[in-house]
């Protein structure tokens, strides 16, 4: 089975693309665990909350991986948690960094920041999207993982992503 992570800054269409790709390939996708977790917090999040989110994300992915049909799409990865914790708290817990280095995605899709910002109570940095995009790109390069940048409006992103995933699936048949 192939695994594809959709990663990148806030409000770049990660959830939308994950859901669209899962539907197109008749498989499941792993939603962003942080959405429900932070949505249920009645206080500002802490580093311990980010650790709980990381653990929940890994558990959810492991569970849904068993239901996947040929390919699994993940609407976040440990890179998101690493960058989030480093930006918010100045460092990343060692175990999250270790899990990031152990990730076994066949491909990461790095979402561009050319979609309009959509306000959301959980989103924090509309003015820093380019900053974060460059940070994600630098981290992916440093990790040496295969990634492709995806940009354009929703329809163009879906078309690009389907072409990329089709090539990946054909290569692995």
Set out the fold topology.
Blueprint: E1 2-7, H1 14-24, E2 29-30, H2 33-39, H3 47-65, E3 71-74, H4 78-89, H5 94-102, E4 107-111, H6 129-143, E5 147-150, H7 154-171
Parallel strand pairs: 1-3, 1-4, 2-3, 4-5
Helix pairs in contact: 1-7, 2-3, 3-4, 4-5
Structure description:
The chain is of the alpha/beta class and 173 residues long. It has a single domain (2-171), classed as Rossmann fold (3-Layer(aba) Sandwich), CATH 3.40.50. It has helices spanning 14-24, 33-39, 47-65, 78-89, 94-102, 129-143, 154-171, and strands spanning 2-7, 29-30, 71-74, 107-111, 147-150. The chain has a 5-stranded parallel β-sheet with strand order 2-3-1-4-5, sandwiched between helices. β4, α6 and β5 form a beta-alpha-beta unit. The longest helix is centred in the N-terminal third of the chain and has 19 residues, at 47-65. The chain is globular and about 45 Å long. The model has no long low-confidence stretch (mean pLDDT 94). Pfam families: AAA_28. Residues 3-157 form the NadR/Ttd14 AAA domain. InterPro entries: NAD_biosynth-regulator, NadR/Ttd14_AAA_dom, P-loop_NTPase. This is AAA family ATPase.
Strand order of the largest sheet: 2-3-1-4-5
Largest sheet: 5 strands, parallel
**SSE order, one letter for each helix or strand:** EHEHHEHHEHEH
- Average pLDDT score: 94
The count of helical stretches stands at 7
Briefly, what CATH class? Alpha Beta
Number of strands: 5
List its traits.
single chain, 173 residues, alpha/beta, Rossmann fold, five-stranded parallel sheet, globular, NadR/Ttd14_AAA_dom, NAD_biosynth-regulator, P-loop_NTPase, AAA family ATPase
